[in-house]
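hey so i finally got around to running the thing on that chain from the lab meeting. sorry it took forever, my laptop kept dying and i had to restart like 3 times. anyway pasting the input first so we r on the same page abt which one it is
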Amino acid sequence: MKRTLALGLLLGAAASLGGCVATQRDILDLENQTDELKHQVADLKTTISTMQNNQADLGVQMQRLQEGLTAFNETVRRSESQMSDLSSKIDDLAATIGNKVAAIGTTLTTVQAKSLDEQKAALASQLQQATPSELFQAAEVRLNKKSYELAAKGFEQYISSFPRGALADVATYDLGEAYYGLKKWKAAGRQFGIYLEKYPKSALTASARIKYALCLVNLRKNPGEARQYLESVIADFPSSPEAKAAARHLKTLAAAAAQKAGDPAP
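ok and heres what got predicted. didnt touch it at all, straight out
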């Protein structure tokens, strides 16, 4: 009986001791969880603070952007106003130019109605009073308008009055162009020959050689010499547009010669 009672007391004490140990573990686990929760809360506060700072920076940036958009809109409004003013000025200018063009057209119609003899007489009067540059420019304008006879008169007068003028070389070449436009092949060829003799190394040398050769072709005279001049352009100015033109003319000459001989063109 006594043994049984002692055993019971011993088992009861062991059970009590086991309960105390379990409770201490729970407390330790709870404390660990609490510490971990505190760390998480601290991290969360840091994250919230960072987000608040970012939000503040974003607010500043948005405000600056808004201010920039406001300034841009103001600039656009001013530009639109200026464009409107400019459009009005352009319309006014267009109207003015239109009136002047109409007046010039009327004048040109009147001038064109005159006979060629009257135009020559007017040109002769102008030539006597014109400065060298005015004389040259007037002839150049007529050449560009394909008024070859009037252009030739102008260049002839320039060369005669100012043989050592600053534009004497160009006038010599352009006189050949005027004769060429009139299909005066002999006069044109002679003029291009004079140009090549006086100005053999000018910027228009290649063109003058081609025109001289074409004058010979049109005169049906010295085809061999014509070919030599065209070939010289290719040899001396191989990369120039004139070299390509000379090659085309040589091909045409070769085809004409073959046809004349009764052979098929190459």
